[in-house]
Structure prediction request, 145 residues.
Amino acid sequence: MTEYLSPVIETKNLGKKYPIPKGYRELLFQPFLKKEKPALENVSIRVQQGEIFGILGPNGSGKTTLLKILSTLILPSSGHALIHGMDVVKHEKEIKSIIGVVVSDERSFYWRLTGRENLSFFSTLNNPTTIFKLIMYCSTRNSLL
Prediction:
């Protein structure tokens, strides 16, 4: 008999729209008209514990937006997303304490710091106890941090 397990990641009809900036003419003649560009529309996924999955798509298809919503960095415009059964909007702090996200932006780390110094700096912003243990473990393993 297969036991039903709740998914680790689940989204239902997830959507995100970004506002399009107005020009002077639109501000003057249509001040209340709201233009938006959809980045995600009706995305529904379920990922069970132990599954390996990837997010593939062309540039501008919403891959980064989806990951930012799942990691509580931005809010969805519609639908909802759950991480371990917790809503990303209502349980932001709890979700951030159980996941880790490294983005490839040049703003995601300070280039003048070593790997260890970056970990130490950014860990103090979120969860210093856990990351301190990681730094100490890596130090004893002679890693490249």
In short: Residues 128-140 form the longest helix (13 residues).
